Amino acid sequence: MAKQQEEVYFVFMNFDPVYERLRADRSKEGSATLDAYLSHKHDKLLAKLLQPDSYRKRSSLAIVDGFAVEITEDQASVLRSAKEVRVVEKNQELA
């Protein structure tokens, strides 16, 4: 069976009151706290749902509570079914 190709997907999370509170703090320390919170939250979700070393998170996106990750279509489907996830979209290059 051929291995599925990994592509970049954007994963956007459902409403999170902690994220909203942290995002309201515009200080340098507040920004660092938000970045750390989101990175940990996104890493934890991926570790819970996907096999270790089967994906590569590229970045967490603080402005929208989301992240970019290299995964297969099957893995994208798994993430779509998670209650914490609002939407999963494949990155599309604009010509």
UniProtKB/TrEMBL annotation:
Superkingdom of source: Eukaryota
InterPro entries to which the protein is assigned, alphabetical: S8pro/Inhibitor_I9
Which is one Pfam family of this protein? Inhibitor_I9
Domain Inhibitor I9 residues, every copy: 53-94
- This chain's protein is named Inhibitor I9 domain-containing protein
Taxonomic source organism: Dichanthelium oligosanthes
Question: Which lineage?
Answer: Eukaryota, Viridiplantae, Streptophyta, Embryophyta, Tracheophyta
